[in-house]
Write a sequence for this structure.
């Protein structure tokens, strides 16, 4: 946050009070500072709401064709993929809805900044952390589901590959390949998702954290 602006505003209040040859009113100083902090908070909150809407729009645009494809193709044998993705979409949608409610409350003129801001920021951080965990696990879980369907729902290919157990490819080797592949994917997704959420939300939540520290200064 622009801390220098806050310090300047605070000094300005002291200077005006001194010019009037009276002691500054602590209540008036606090009211002025909270009003300034409220104005500063609108930027990060509005940006988080915008990014939240963009992410939700992207999720709907990505999930909808995939859900429709697996629901109406393959004679319904792979419709479980559609239901799985739909359940994930509902779960993510619930998180986005709750986060948006918090952000709307923070933009409300009646929002009591001093008692509520820290609690709301903690709630936002918790939702973002859970969102990151779910996003990171979504691809491995989907891969496991697709693998199970690959073996149990679809006919075996004429020429089996390294993902099929056989005389030359024992089951333990297939399991090791799956575990190693999914572990590598999970590590990569963790790093990518951490950077992605930091760009979308983390840096803006940190600005709100700075506001909390300013408010709680003695």
């Amino acid at each position: 946050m622009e801390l220098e602006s806050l310090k300047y505003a605070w000094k300005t209040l002291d200077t005006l009070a001194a010019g009037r040859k009276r002691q500054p009113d602590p209540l008036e100083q606090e009211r002025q500072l909270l009003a300034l902090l409220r104005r500063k908070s609108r930027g990060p909150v509005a940006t988080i709401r915008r990014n939240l809407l963009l992410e939700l729009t992207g999720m709907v645009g990505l999930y909808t064709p995939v859900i429709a494809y697996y629901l109406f193709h393959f004679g319904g044998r792979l419709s479980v993929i559609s239901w799985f993705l739909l359940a994930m979409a509902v779960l993510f949608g619930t998180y986005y809805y709750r986060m948006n409610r918090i952000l709307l409350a923070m933009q409300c003129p009646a929002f009591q900044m001093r008692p509520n801001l820290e609690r709301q920021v903690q709630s936002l951080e918790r939702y973002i952390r859970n969102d990151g965990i779910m996003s990171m696990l979504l691809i491995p879980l989907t891969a496991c589901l697709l693998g199970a369907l690959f073996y149990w729902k679809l006919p075996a290919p004429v020429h089996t590959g390294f993902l099929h157990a056989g005389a030359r490819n024992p089951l333990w080797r297939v399991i090791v390949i799956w575990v190693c592949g999914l572990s590598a994917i999970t590590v990569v997704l963790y790093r990518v998702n951490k950077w992605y959420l930091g760009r979308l939300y983390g840096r803006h939540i940190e600005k709100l954290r700075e506001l909390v520290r300013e408010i709680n200064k003695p």
